[in-house]
Amino acid sequence: MSWIVRYLFALALSGTLVQSSNLPEVPPGVFNVSAQLELQTTTSAVWDALTNFPAYASWNPFVRAAIVVTPLNASLDEQYPVENRRLFLRTQTPPLPLPVNSDTPDNPLNTQLAYENITHVQPDLLRLAWAYAATPPDVLAGERWQAISDLGNGRVLYESREVFHGALAPTLRDLYGAGLQESFDAQAQGLKLLLEG
Ligand SMILES: *[C@@H]1O[C@H](CO)[C@@H](O)[C@H](O)[C@H]1NC(C)=O
Ligand SMILES: *[C@@H]1O[C@H](CO)[C@@H](O)[C@H](O)[C@H]1NC(C)=O
Ligand SMILES: *[C@@H]1O[C@H](CO)[C@@H](O)[C@H](O)[C@H]1NC(C)=O
């Protein structure tokens, strides 16, 4: 291979890598919602924001509270993601208008409470996931993945995606599919406001 061929090959390969997703491959479900947004920041700043549960209310228009709890729903001292722990979420679907801060009140008509299992905390791969755990999986299941990739030149790709399964998933899609999509997009925009100032 001449140097020019090798150079073009490397260029093509780096282009592919830059555009590839850091979300894992998962089986298809009934429907999914996802968001992706490029941010001018560092991967560690995004990781810190996503794992700092107590600070969610100050920027997140979708997840207004994320509390690590015992199986009996008592709040734990360690409020950061740990695999196999339970997570209580209070969310807004559709989302609150941006910007939000910790004093922004919920819209009670759009408030949902959810219990999740924290399934993956992967600081080396820059991925996090939790799975809906309030119903048996054949009734409703969904694992929400978030992933970060370094695009170089001070740019970072933030991605989130949840694929829903189970007998209630078509109903969830009809009632909340559009609102959930708005909420995923709004969380990405909230992160951008937080990290780009
Ligand atoms: C998400 O849904 C779209 C169609 O709406 C589909 O093309 C895509 O394969 C789905 N992704 C996953 C991971 O299920
Ligand atoms: C679980 O804990 C959260 C946060 O402390 C609380 O808001 C929620 O009402 C509790 N759920 C139940 C069923 O007690
Ligand atoms: C959540 O965790 C509990 C106990 O660790 C387990 O019994 C349950 O199947 C899990 N649910 C999901 C949806 O992963």
From TrEMBL:
The keyword Signal applies. InterPro entries: START-like_dom_sf. SUPFAM superfamilies: Bet v1-like. Gene3D superfamilies: 3.30.530.20. Residues 1-20 form the signal peptide. Keywords: Signal. The keyword Membrane does not apply. This is Coenzyme Q-binding protein COQ10 START domain-containing protein. The lineage of its organism: Eukaryota, Fungi, Dikarya, Ascomycota, Pezizomycotina.
